[in-house]
# Entry
Amino acid sequence: MIRFNSDYGEGAAPQILERLAATNLEQSPGYGEDAHCQEAARRILDQVKAPGVQVHFLVGGTQTNLTVIAAALRPHQCVLAAQTAHINVHETGAIEACGHKVVTLPTRDGKITAQDIREAVESHYRDPSWEHITQPKMVYLSCPTEVGTLYSLSELEAISALCREKKLYLFLDGARLGYGLTAPACDLTLPDLGRLCDAFYIGGTKQGALFGEAVVLTHPALQEDFRYLMKQKGAMLAKGRLLGIQFEVLFEDDLYWELARHANRLALHLRERLTALGVSFFIDSPTNQQFPILPNRVLDALKDRYSWSFWEAVDGERTAVRLCTSWATREEDVDAFLQDLEEALAR
# Structure
């Protein structure tokens, strides 16, 4: 079975496994206070290029989202997000379980705009009963979005300016950040995120690490007592050096970006070949997630050899599916899938 259903189906980049093995018998302080975490944080800060920033290492994306949001919001406050946002549709109510409501905004492409946010905030305060409604205090974005689309620099600048005007925190989910920032269509950089966001994270789980996300906190209010919240939310790993070592390796010799570029190259190869075969797409994604619309008969013919994620039934005969490439996807597997797909389409 060749799997295209996710970008975290493989283990870890060999360089990470080698370093973990080489440091296996080292003794170090726990809970992220070791030299490896310090060095990994330094390497990340060198690329973010923003003053007064903190870096913390957590195990997974859902854990990271709920910990950052809990750090930002008081009990009566909510987070604004696209209706397709990961925290709304794929985290089993984790944010609500922490006592905070996710208020969603409509979207066609997985993105929300500064105007969408302005209207949500201003309509809240226009309501005479505003004190009876959860107060917007944070905006959640992701790069790439849940459907693989990207915010442009100008879009993120407009959202950031609006958040500062309305005194909202801006938090960007970067579980697939490398795939987003290395996409040829992307004009954002890590320093842009450092100056425009109050918090964001650099995903490792989906990008070559065994597990782990690096949270970057730029707003002083979010930095205060963040480690207390990490501990409370079960996000403080006792063997914290396992996270530090992985990010130390990922940000050594450009590895993080090389792995991301590999996945994007193969995803765009998939897209070009599928387009040439006359396949249409559910959404125009320039990243490692592609969403072709395929005949059900073709999916039935291929399902024993390949896997994908169901996305949406388009009609009685066609389905939109998600194909993910990853840092470890092999070009020969992509070509085998394309060959078999072409033959199935021709039948």
Summary: The radius of gyration is 21 Å. The chain has 15 helices and 14 strands.
